[in-house]
């Protein structure tokens, strides 16, 4: 499931100066298929570990290992896959939003980290 | 009848080829016949990767799954002597799904885990289904099956509550490894089904009549039941539960090619493969970049079909619905 | 075929068969008669090994029925039951072919040509590709008879074969059973119609409350008091011109 610019985590990308490859008119989340992801060719992938972090992380790693589609994205090729961990990140906004935004912009623009 | 059956065989084969061609071309990026041939000759191109790594395994998987589910349905209908019996409506598939999820939580180290757990789940549901009085009464059987299905779906939701990733029974994200597993299991199962097709015909007679001609009723009943269960749970293990294929396809097939299982089973295999591929191809192209899962597509097609079948047919006892 | 002290008891019921000893002569038509609940059908099921004998034994050609395998028994004994049921569409040819299963491997298919003679003897040749469900009761009965004959049995069992037939078909069937017996087949049937039983049988079994009252040739058993005692109703034997002796039930003495 992918968070679009209409969801909190999805919009963090825009606030940090990036562009969410799955922008939408109305949907908060969508489930693009492999072909669509491959075509969008994200440069950075942010994975939100939600609810049951240990199990979800394992599932993410397994999925990225087994499904070769991911390895063809620029993000994986350049090792720019990052895990958004609780409590800083969550599906909805919380008090740590400033830290979260800083973190995302450092991931997106490693050199010129914004203040 | 034979003549007509041959026409339908030709028809479904043609339809299958056309749909496979369309499925190769359609997607997020439309590839026409020329681009397709160019793509296949240039192994480095983006188009080749799209077709070979994403579309082909998906097409193969949906073909095998559709064929397996349709044949599993036909076998269940023969064994239970009930035209709407099928592993999904009787709770076999959702039991397999539930056990698969349970296995992922408890035994993540087990090799071949998903298939083994799905098979175990199917077996548990089958034992529950055949141990009580459900077998004696076709209506009771379906109601028990539906209750079993609801129970396992509920249990699965209970187990997965809180997890972000809920399984959706979709062909998206299937890899070559998944497709190969499906292909091997499905082709073996379907081959055995073709071999055992005469047994499904025997079960049109009563148990007493079969004993009179020296046929071991229990052996053939359980063989067909376990075969149907294995076919259905192999699909569940890799893709998830997909409803109604096993009900829709054999019942339409009976009208087209007749009630002889030796013609019905191979035809159901082809028709099921086509239906699944058509449903999945439609599902992944109508709302790009997202998609409608195969299970959802089949529910939309299959639900109304079963309602019409039962509202207009003569009933559940026996299969002489005309 | 012989019975020696054969008993069978239905679970949780008082009915059954007790200590029955008797023979079914080869190459003859034997009819089992008796009142409702006497155990006629039970006896037939025991002979077909559809029910297990509790004590005593049934022998066929000098060998206990239990020593036969399912397949070898099916090559010797065939059964036509009162009402056959099909769960799905089948053609006449398909049904009759199931009678050949005892002679084939479980995975083989029976060639259609193999049942041609049985379709011919039962007059079904022209109906071979019809669906059984679309046939009349009389035609359906012939289909099941053809399937039983396809087993090439030494013993043919029939449970009330005339029930769903009109008078014409009843006569035709009885004649056919006689012809089969004349070829050496042992025919054993249960009938409700006493007169039919006396007229078309070579041998009779009289059964009451699970026990054999007596067995013998029809002429020897045509006694009003014996039948009255067995059926527990007053019976007289009258002479019908051009037919001969006819068994009729008469009103109770007190009703006069």
Would you spell out the secondary-structure blueprint of this structure?
The complex is a heterotrimer of chains A (115), B (322) and C (256).
Chain A: E1 2-3, H1 8-15, E2 29-30, H2 34-40, E3 45-48, H3 53-66, H4 68-71, H5 74-77, E4 81-84, H6 97-108
Parallel strand pairs in A: 3-4
Antiparallel strand pairs in A: 1-2
Chain B: H1 2-25, H2 33-41, H3 46-80, H4 92-106, H5 113-131, H6 138-160, H7 176-202, H8 207-212, H9 217-238, H10 245-257, H11 261-285, H12 294-312
Helix pairs in contact in B: 1-3, 1-11, 2-3, 3-7, 3-9, 3-10, 3-11, 4-5, 4-6, 4-9, 5-9, 7-9, 7-11, 10-11
Chain C: E1 2-9, E2 16-23, E3 29-33, H1 40-47, E4 55-60, E5 63-64, H2 70-76, E6 77-80, H3 92-98, H4 116-121, H5 137-150, E7 155-159, H6 167-182, E8 186-190, H7 194-200, E9 203-208, E10 211-216, H8 218-221, H9 224-231, E11 235-240, E12 244-249
Parallel strand pairs in C: 3-8, 3-9, 6-7, 7-8
Antiparallel strand pairs in C: 1-2, 1-4, 4-5, 9-10, 11-12
Helix pairs in contact in C: 3-5
Q: Could you walk me through the main structural features you see in this protein, from its secondary elements to its overall organization?
A:
The complex is a heterotrimer of chains A (115), B (322) and C (256). Chain A has helices spanning 8-15, 34-40, 53-66, 68-71, 74-77, 97-108, and strands at 2-3, 29-30, 45-48, 81-84. Chain A is mainly α and 115 residues long. Chain A has a single domain (2-108), classed as Nitrogenase molybdenum iron protein domain (Rossmann fold), CATH 3.40.50. Chain A starts with a strand and ends in a 7-residue tail after the last helix. With 322 residues, chain B is mostly helical. Chain B has a single domain, classed as Orthogonal Bundle (ABC transporter involved in vitamin B12 uptake, BtuC), CATH 1.10.3470. Chain B has twelve helices and no strands. The longest helix of chain B is centred in the N-terminal third of the chain and has 35 residues, at 46-80. The radius of gyration of chain B is 20 Å and the shape is globular. Chain C has 256 residues and is α/β, with parallel strands linked by helices. Chain C has one domain: P-loop containing nucleotide triphosphate hydrolases (Rossmann fold, 3-Layer(aba) Sandwich), CATH 3.40.50. Chain C has nine helices and twelve strands. In chain C, β4 and β5 form a beta hairpin. The longest helix of chain C has 16 residues, at 167-182. Chain C is globular.
């Amino acid at each position: 499931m992918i968070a679009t610019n209409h969801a909190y985590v999805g919009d963090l990308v825009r606030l940090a100066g990036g562009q969410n490859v799955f922008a939408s008119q109305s949907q908060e989340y969508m489930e693009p298929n492999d072909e669509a992801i491959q075509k969008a060719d994200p440069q950075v992938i942010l994975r939100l570990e939600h609810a049951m972090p240990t199990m979800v992380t394992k599932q993410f790693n397994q999925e990225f290992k087994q499904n070769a589609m991911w390895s063809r994205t620029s993000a994986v090729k350049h090792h720019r896959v990052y895990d958004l961990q609780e409590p800083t990140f969550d599906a909805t906004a919380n008090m740590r939003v400033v830290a979260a935004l800083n973190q995302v912009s450092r991931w997106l623009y490693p050199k010129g980290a914004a203040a | 009848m034979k003549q007509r059956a041959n026409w339908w065989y030709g028809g479904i084969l043609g339809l299958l080829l056309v749909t496979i061609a369309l499925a190769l071309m359609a997607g997020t990026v439309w590839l026409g016949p020329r681009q397709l041939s160019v793509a296949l000759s240039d192994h480095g191109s983006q188009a080749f990767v799209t077709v070979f790594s994403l579309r082909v395994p998906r097409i193969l998987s949906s073909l095998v799954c559709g064929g397996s589910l349709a044949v599993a349905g036909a076998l269940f209908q023969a064994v239970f002597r009930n035209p709407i019996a099928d592993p999904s409506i009787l709770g076999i598939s959702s039991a397999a799904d539930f056990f698969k999820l349970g296995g992922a939580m408890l035994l993540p180290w087990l090799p071949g885990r998903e298939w083994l757990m799905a098979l175990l789940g199917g077996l548990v549901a089958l034992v529950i289904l055949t141990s009580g009085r459900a077998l004696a009464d076709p209506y009771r059987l379906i109601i028990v099956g539906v209750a079993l299905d609801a129970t396992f779906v509920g249990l699965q939701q209970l187990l997965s509550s809180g997890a972000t990733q809920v399984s959706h029974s979709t062909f998206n994200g299937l890899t070559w490894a998944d497709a190969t597993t499906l292909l091997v299991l499905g082709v073996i199962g379907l081959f055995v089904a073709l071999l055992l097709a005469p047994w499904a015909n025997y079960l049109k007679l009563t148990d007493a009549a079969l004993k009179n001609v020296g046929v071991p009723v229990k052996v053939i009943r359980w063989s067909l039941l376990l075969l149907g269960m294995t076919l259905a749970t192999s699909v569940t293990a890799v893709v998830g539960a997909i409803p109604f294929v096993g009900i829709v396809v054999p019942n339409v097939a009976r009208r087209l090619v007749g009630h002889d299982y030796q013609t019905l089973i191979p035809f159901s295999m082809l028709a099921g493969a086509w239906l699944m591929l058509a449903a999945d191809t439609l599902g992944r192209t109508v709302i790009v970049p997202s998609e409608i899962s195969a299970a959802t597509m089949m529910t939309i097609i299959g639900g109304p079909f079963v309602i019409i079948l039962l509202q207009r047919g003569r009933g559940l006892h026996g299969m002489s619905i005309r | 075929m012989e019975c020696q002290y054969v008993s069978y008891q239905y679970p949780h019921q008082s009915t059954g068969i007790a200590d029955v000893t008797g023979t079914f002569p080869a190459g003859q038509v034997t009819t089992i008669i008796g009142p409702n609940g006497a155990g006629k059908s039970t006896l037939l099921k025991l002979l077909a090994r559809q029910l297990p004998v509790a004590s005593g034994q049934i022998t066929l050609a000098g060998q206990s029925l239990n020593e036969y395998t399912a397949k070898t028994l099916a090559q010797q004994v065939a059964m036509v039951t009162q009402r056959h049921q099909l769960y799905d569409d089948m053609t006449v040819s398909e049904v009759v072919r199931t009678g050949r299963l005892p002679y084939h491997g479980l995975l083989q298919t029976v060639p259609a040509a193999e049942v041609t003679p049985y379709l011919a003897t039962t007059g079904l040749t022209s109906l071979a590709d019809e669906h059984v469900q679309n046939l009349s009761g009389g035609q359906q009965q012939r289909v099941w008879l053809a399937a039983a004959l396809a087993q090439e049995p030494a013993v043919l069992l029939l449970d009330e074969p005339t029930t769903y037939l009109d008078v014409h078909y009843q006569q035709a069937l009885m004649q056919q059973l006689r012809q089969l017996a004349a070829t050496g087949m042992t025919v054993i049937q249960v009938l409700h119609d006493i007169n039919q039983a006396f007229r078309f049988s070579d041998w009779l079994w009289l059964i009451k409350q699970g026990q054999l009252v007596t067995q013998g040739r029809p002429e020897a058993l045509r006694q009003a008091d014996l039948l009255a005692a067995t059926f527990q109703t007053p019976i007289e034997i009258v002479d019908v011109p051009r037919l001969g002796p006819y068994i009729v039930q008469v009103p109770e003495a007190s009703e006069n």
